[in-house]
Amino acid sequence: MKIHLGTETIKDIQNAVVTSGTFDGVHVGHQQILSRLREVANDINGETVLITYWPHPRLVLNPSDRSLCLLSTFPEKANLLEKYGIDHLVKVPFTKEFSQMSPEDYIKIILKERIMTKRLIIGYDHRFGIERSGGLDELIDFAPRYGYEVEEIPRKDIDEIGISSTKIRNALNSGDVALANSFLGRFYSLTGKVVHGEKRGRGIGFPTANINIKEGYKLIPGDGVYAVKVCDKYKKLDGMLNIGTRPTVGGENRTIEVHIFDFNEDIYDSEICIEFVNQIRKEQKFESVDALKAQLEADEQAVRAELSKL
User: Which domains does the chain possess?
Assistant: First the structure.
């Protein structure tokens, strides 16, 4: 897959079959569009092109609104899109100036002049242009003038799946990673750097790796204890992860800490990926550190049992 930073230097795409959107999370609904994109490209000996916008439009148009958390960073999204058969990923810098482009200018400049679109595949609710004023009607109206064909994924096909990025975010915020995973078609994941913590877990027999997620917009699942897979460049290990403030030991800041089973290596400053399998319980405050330790021992057994099902 080739990644294009903007549209100005794109050239020589053969029979471009195009879709566009934020594609946050690349969930099962998105995958239906991507599958159709690949199918059409194969039929006309074409190449698949996905236009996406970065940063997310809401982060630019409403910078004071901190409520939006995203399911995927741009590198995560790019890796997923490559797996689903995208030949060209076009990363369009989303600015306030770009948001003022009229629907016809978007079609003329981006779709026709720069990408030379032959076929356009879109979801039923696709909007574009200033104040989202463009949609399917405009794409159909301008198709003869600019020489492309447009195909809409019917609303019934998307609604039957019943999946949206918002539903996935809600599931993750509540800790229901199993539901989110079913919508995504894979395990939800976080990637971060292992940093030094207070090392309290080591003192009670559960050493943990503290994970720092540098992207402040990345969605962190709700507080609780999770069964996880821990991945680095070479292997995938079982683990038990806690998200929360650690109220039993007087914690104040929210942390992400993973106890990796049967593992005793120095991984400080390493980048690891966490795949969430299921939530075991919500975070809670215990009467003593001994009570916390006893619960962690029970949690470990529950996590090992959960992971043994995979």
Answer: 2-163 (3.40.50.620), 176-307 (2.40.30.30)
